[in-house]
Amino acid sequence: GESVGLHLPTLSVQEGDNSIINCAYSNSASDYFIWYKQESGKGPQFIIDIRSNMDKRQGQRVTVLLNKTVKHLSLQIAATQPGDSAVYFCAENIPSGYALNFGKGTSLLVTP
Amino acid sequence: DTAVSQTPKYLVTQMGNDKSIKCEQNLGHDTMYWYKQDSKKFLKIMFSYNNKELIINETVPNRFSPKSPDKAHLNLHINSLELGDSAVYFCASSSIGEKLFFGSGTQLSVL
Predict the structure, then answer these.
(1) How crowded is residue B86: how many other Cβ atoms within 10 Å of its Cβ?
(2) CATH 2.60.40.10 corresponds to the domain B4-110
């Protein structure tokens, strides 16, 4: 999920397939992680979160996996739908707790 | 009811002007934020306020001045606008250490 060059990394999947979006976070002291979805012209919208005492958390069609050893976070979306097309951001808390640092985003494109 | 609302949604102005963006939240949160999103979609924290007190002030030019009249409001005033200020500005709120709720953004275009 890290940006390369000038463009957002893009993941293109077919409708009905599963999607996996990856993110590397930077601060080993972070203990709270969140995935956000941003549709065009809108603000980031909360999808799912996980605290560092867990390595997996499931929601409706979404699963977040946390690997603290390698500072890696992933978002799995089951049975991807056209409405899932958006930019996805991972975020980690600043240890003071007073803000989130965002990753560079991954654009998910769902094709019929 | 909109949880975090910011106005205006679009702001087009000339270089050198002064402008303000307003933000209000009705979620009862004690912490509010301003983020800037650039053309590459990168979201960067500018300021955070907790109970009307400035907590985080990232390396933002002092032409940007946030003001929090009460816990439910955090406004952003920008003096002497420059071309590089063009971006989308997002207000957000949260309880401390919890997920942020974002407004729908203000697209600022400086001509």
Answers:
(1) 17
(2) yes
